[in-house]
Amino acid sequence: MSVKGELEGTALKIYIYLLESNEDAGVREIARDLGLPVSTVHYHLKRLEELGYVEKTTDGYKVAQRLKLRDYIVIGSRVIHRFTLYSLFFLGFAIGEAILVIQSQSINPDRIAVLIATLLASLIFGIERLRIK
């Protein structure tokens, strides 16, 4: 966790896990699901609790304060990284362009350039998203 209180690394993973969880989660459950040592999860939960971001309940921990996460978008109970949305946007654009090419049955250099650019953009954002995890 950074000095200014912004979540990063393991603390961010734990916070997102709790944010997506519909129920309170215990330390062992979080550790098992995230593949982390119990001691690490316990340490970060205590830090998150001190900051007021999570609270301890009788059944485990839950989010106490919803934060605006810099690189993430919260849709319902799902937390999605912005690169995932960018990748899907460009993939949709490429699919739409491919459909237009198929329907018109004509390929010109402009359409090829758009297809290549959108597929590359989708691929780059997808790879960057995978590197972050």
From TrEMBL:
The chain crosses the membrane at residues 83-106, 112-130. Pfam families: HTH_IclR. GO terms for molecular function: DNA binding. InterPro entries: ArsR-like_HTH, Tscrpt_reg_IclR_N, WH-like_DNA-bd_sf, WH_DNA-bd_sf. GO terms for biological process: regulation of DNA-templated transcription. SUPFAM superfamilies: Winged helix' DNA-binding domain. CDD domains: HTH_ARSR (cd00090). Residues 12-56 form the HTH iclR-type domain. This is HTH iclR-type domain-containing protein. The lineage of its organism: Archaea, Thermoproteota, Thermoprotei, Thermofilales, Thermofilaceae.
